[in-house]
Amino acid sequence: MSTESLRIVWIYPDLLSTYGDRGNLLILARRAMQRGVPVEVAEVRSDHPLPHSADIYLIGGGEDGPQALGAQRLLADGGLHRAVARGSVVFGVCAGYQLLGTSFFAKGAKCAGLELLDLQSDRGPSRAVGELAGDIDPRLGVPQLSGFENHGGRTHLGPGVSPLARVTAGVGNDGTYEGAWRGKLLGTYAHGPALARNPALADLLLRWALGVNNLPPLNDTWAERLRSERKTAVAAGRP
Ligand code: GLN
């Protein structure tokens, strides 16, 4: 494995960082460092240009107003598009997932997305709030998704993306599928934060960024305990 630093950018902490999504940054950085990979982290506020040379970009959730503003600023900036063209990894959660698509609704208005993923979001009949679980696309080699969702939008995938998971609890995109991925871009409705609850998903992003097929295993006892506790609660109807 190269000893070059892994560069991780947390996009717009001032706008898109609800429900503890910043924890995804901490988890990724820690899991890389535990494998001896040095990490450089940049938290880039929405009034700053986005560097296009990082290895991993993380975008979190947000309420409608900050989500619409974040999408406008990312479109105007263009840095994320340049990064994707260079092969960077992007992980978007909830609002950050929706804005990677072609369009989404915020405060009743249709907003332009970044068109990095072939999907669009509209509004659902009710807000989806609670536990979210699903069987992840077997091609990704990651066990069941475990998370928490809180969103009003529903997401419809085009032929250019694959669903991240088939829903077993909660709503996700539309009650049947949850999240989406294409190449090294991946989006999910799972907060939690998602990577704390899904260490194998964190390692997938790290493997994509580092260009390796395997990483040395870590002690994930606490995450496994949390996953099984939440699974039991969902099964008992107490999510
Ligand atoms: N504003 C979006 C929605 O309600 C995203 C919410 C979120 O990021 N939690 O669908």
Provide a short characterization of the protein structure.
This protein has a single domain (6-235), classed as Rossmann fold (3-Layer(aba) Sandwich), CATH 3.40.50. It is built from 7 helices and 11 strands. It has helices at residues 23-34, 64-77, 79-85, 95-98, 194-197, 199-210, 221-235, and strands at residues 6-11, 39-44, 56-59, 89-93, 103-106, 109-112, 119-136, 145-157, 162-169, 177-182, 185-188.
Describe the 3D structure.
GO terms for molecular function: carbon-nitrogen ligase activity on lipid II; glutaminase activity. Belongs to the CobB/CobQ family. GatD subfamily. Its EC number is 6.3.5.13, 3.5.1.2. This protein has a single domain, classed as Rossmann fold. It is α/β, with parallel strands linked by helices and 239 residues long. The longest helix has 15 residues. Helix 1 crosses helix 6. The strands form 2 sheets. The chain has a 9-stranded mixed beta sheet with strand order 2-1-3-4-11-10-9-7-8, with helices on both faces. Strands 5-6 form a two-stranded antiparallel sheet. It binds glutamine. Glutamine binds next to helix 2 and strand 8.
Chain-wise SSE layout:
Blueprint (H helix, E strand, L loop, with lengths): L5 E6 L11 H12 L4 E6 L11 E4 L4 H14 L1 H7 L3 E5 L1 H4 L4 E4 L2 E4 L6 E18 L8 E13 L4 E8 L7 E6 L2 E4 L5 H4 L1 H12 L10 H15 L4
Parallel strand pairs: 1-2, 1-3, 3-4, 4-11
Antiparallel strand pairs: 5-6, 7-8, 7-9, 9-10, 10-11
Helix pairs in contact: 1-6
Bound molecules: glutamine.
